[in-house]
Specification:
mainly alpha; rod-shaped
């Protein structure tokens, strides 16, 4: 008889076993996303799918799906500094740089002082550089 999925010919008594376990066109599901696909495509699909990452809510690292079970069995909730992902490293570097940079925050006292100094400067400028009505036209 011929398999209706892959067209391979075989003895009728092994057809059921072939379709359930050996046929390359039988439908199987991905262990990472549970997507149904032909068995012949499973390996290639899982190579890509298993490299996707998800956030571990205990240690806040992104873990590959193919490594998730092993990670969950040994994760203690503390970020692993030696194996920290590049994303976490970049975030930590940005935080350190932000702490080194001076903050440009103004306190209310400093703001009032700046306004007072500016007001005094404007007042003095208007007194010293005041135009006299008769000085504008000189012949």
């Amino acid at each position: 008889v011929s398999c209706s999925l892959c067209s391979e010919t075989m003895e009728p008594e092994i057809l059921a076993v072939h379709k359930g376990e050996n046929c390359p066109r039988r439908i199987v599901t991905c262990e990472y996303c549970e997507f149904p696909l032909p068995a012949i495509d499973l390996f290639e699909h899982q190579e890509v799918c298993g490299n996707r990452t998800e956030l571990c809510h205990l240690c806040r690292r992104y873990i590959r799906l193919r490594e998730r079970i092993d990670h969950e069995s040994r994760c203690n909730g503390v970020p692993n500094i030696t194996a920290e992902s590049s994303r976490n490293t970049r975030e930590a570097e940005r935080e350190r740089a932000a702490r080194r940079r001076p903050r440009h925050e103004f306190s209310p006292k400093r703001l009032l002082f700046t306004i007072a100094i500016t007001g005094i400067a404007v007042l003095l400028g208007s007194l010293f550089f005041q135009r006299k009505p008769g000085n504008s036209e000189m012949h």
